Amino acid sequence: MIKLEGISKKFGDTTALENVSLDIKRGEFVALLGPSGCGKSTTLMILAGLLRPSSGQVYFDGKMVNNVEPKDRDIGMVFQSYALYPHMSVIDNIAFPLKQRKVKKKERYQKAREIAAMLQIDQLTDRMPSQLSGGQQQRVAMARALAKDPLFLLLDEPMSNLDARLKVDVRDEIRRLQLKLGITTIIVTHDQEEAMAVADKIAILQNGKIQQYGTPEELFMKPVNLFVAHFMGNPPMNILKCDFLRNGNERVLSGEGFVYNILSTKKLSSEFKGAKVVLGARPHHIQISKVQQENSIPAKVVLVEQLGREKLIKVLLGDNENTTNFIRILSPTDLNVTYDERVFLTLDSEAIHIFDEETGKVIT
Amino acid sequence: MNLARLKKKSYPYLFLAPFAILTLMFFVIPALATLWMAATNLDRKMKADFIGFGNFQRIFADINILPIIKVTLIYVFFSLVLTVAFSLLLAICTQYLVKNKKLGALYRVIWLIPSTMPGLVYVVFWKYIFNPTPGGFANKIVMYFGLEQPISWFNDAGLLIIIIAGVISGASGGMILFSASINSIPEDVYKAARVDGAKDRSIIRDIILPALKWPIMYVTVTSTIGLFASYNFILLATRGGPVVDTTTLALYGYQQAFNRLEYGYGAAISVIVVIISLLLTLLLFRLFDFNKLIRPPRIED
């Protein structure tokens, strides 16, 4: 079990991490997700012991490990660049951690060959790293990280140097291996799809703070703030600034080019007293209709993209030509709309998210 | 049309021509002239008669030649080993072990100073330190500690001083090359090694030294050639004396040609110097497995 407690890290005047706390259970696969510079790699380096936190504690199985050297932390690590030892053959790379543990020569090569076979690189063991493709290097790096049967596996953007197709294979492979070995794994990534695909839980970071920590479903369905809502999902959630109007029992959202009546069953946070909000609606939660319905929003089609399984439609909100508020909608391919066509949008009122514009926090 | 193509094709040769001519005049022709001279008895009378291998026969009969070859081998071997070892030590210390990059760089700059000094100034500095009179720096120290008579350093340990002085000024070149190579090892590789449990000793042995194989070979080969051919420092420091105790083959060739004006004989000696350093270079290539270094990578999916 891993526990981070109030971890902060400063580099000179810049704060990379601020009061980060995290609980990771044995056997869990956790993704640290966020845009570049959010502090996810710094968190991983602190877990590895390659960086010391400025304040806060790191616990491995209940023991404080702040001052424990990386080599004594029982971790395996895969780097973004793979960091293979260029002057050693594949088998020597894999056996290197065992050699450092003074495992006998015969034993360590046998173990290295077993790991190589598990990762299907046993036919490459005599090659030098420069004679391998990117995908093969990635496997060697995985094999080296797993060679000493570590308690924790740390993966630092392990797939960002692979092409899109290979990435899907490799992430499946990593997940399969993780489940098979039951090894507690932490992956750093900026790709939300990758995180959703492999992880049991995702910690999403921005500006050195954990924004939300939960299962992929939680993060996707119940984002706690605007950042999480926008970061999760592709194409991203539509974000519309609007005024919040209370009229007796009626609650109305009014923005540029649209007016939307929130159904009375929808509960809002009682703490919210403001008037400025942000409406968030995922592209697949919006229906397009050619006829006007109650509470529907008029719009004009400006772009139709055929994605194969579905269509991505971009529309401009409002009746007149002067609005600039546009949103993206995913709809079934059988829907026939064309450029410049007038349409009406209905929002699934259970699936919409409303955020306080000032704080970005969700109020639905 | 054809003329235009000819013009275009001739451009590279035109650009190369000045340097080709200079190389021919100042390198190829003198080298051939030396070979020719080595086969003549050209001397102070400036009359050259072809004597074939006469000079070479004379070299093998020269009573000085054995001690000189011995001095040369000792000088080259110890200078080489110490220069490479010392520059490795400096590079690893300043680039890897000292974690403060600025401090390491400052230290390297200090070590560069001797090699930026003009040779003559550098010799004067060493001659002052090991001056045989009681006023010499080293003698002041040993006499302060109770020695009665000043030591004639260059007479007693001339070769040792020459080797040390050469190593100190020669180490900085290798140091710069080695530390640049160490610097080019990606940071992630060190991190991976730390996670894998490698200590400094293992990082130096398994990661840094293999990365330095090519630069070490380069420094070793160029130093070997340079050391065999160099005589300036020795000439200025001891003139090869006492007797031939610090005379290397290259210096002997110089003295034969320019002090005794036996041009033919001097040229023959320098031909021997070239042959020896050529053979040693080939041996070093073999030793460093040069073919393996230039083998192309095999990349496939």
Write the layout of secondary structure elements.
The complex is a heterodimer of chains A (364) and B (301).
Chain A (H helix, E strand, L loop, with lengths): L1 E10 L2 E11 L4 E5 L6 H9 L6 E6 L2 E2 L10 E4 L11 H11 L4 H14 L15 H13 L5 E5 L7 H18 L2 E6 L2 H7 L2 E6 L2 E6 L1 H6 L4 H6 L6 E10 L2 E6 L2 E5 L13 E6 L4 E4 L7 E10 L3 E8 L8 E7 L9 E6 L5 E4 L8
Parallel strand pairs in A: 3-8, 3-9, 6-7, 7-8
Antiparallel strand pairs in A: 1-2, 1-4, 4-5, 9-10, 11-12, 11-14, 12-13, 14-20, 15-19, 16-17, 16-19, 17-18
Helix pairs in contact in A: 2-3, 2-4, 3-4
Chain B lengths: L1 H37 L15 H8 L3 H33 L3 H16 L2 H11 L7 H8 L8 H31 L3 H9 L4 H12 L1 H17 L2 H6 L11 H11 L3 H25 L2 H4 L8
Family (chain B): Belongs to the binding-protein-dependent transport system permease family.
InterPro entries (chain B): ABC_transporter_permease, MetI-like, MetI-like_sf
Protein name (chain B): ABC transporter permease subunit
Task: Write structural notes for this entry.
- Chain A: GO terms for molecular function: ABC-type ferric iron transporter activity; ATP binding; ATP hydrolysis activity.
- The complex is a heterodimer of chains A (364) and B (301).
- Chain A has helices spanning 40-48, 90-100, 105-118, 134-146, 164-181, 192-198, 216-221, 226-231, and strands at residues 2-11, 14-24, 29-33, 55-60, 63-64, 75-78, 152-156, 184-189, 201-206, 209-214, 238-247, 250-255, 258-262, 276-281, 286-289, 297-306, 310-317, 326-332, 342-347, 353-356.
- In chain A, a hairpin with a 2-residue loop joins strand 9 and strand 10 (209-214).
- Chain A is α+β, with helices and mostly antiparallel strands and 364 residues long.
- In chain A, helix 2 packs across helix 3 (105-118), helix 2 runs parallel beside helix 4 (134-146) and helix 3 crosses helix 4 (134-146).
- Chain A has two domains: 2-224, 3-Layer(aba) Sandwich (Rossmann fold); 238-356, OB fold (Dihydrolipoamide Acetyltransferase, E2P) (Beta Barrel), CATH 2.40.50.140.
- The relative contact order of chain A is 0.12.
- The radius of gyration of chain A is 25 Å and the shape is elongated.
- By secondary structure, chain B is mainly α.
- The radius of gyration of chain B is 25 Å and the shape is globular.
- Chain B has a single domain, classed as MetI-like (MetI-like fold).
- Chain B has 14 helices and no strands.
- The chains are: A alpha+beta (364), B mainly alpha (301).
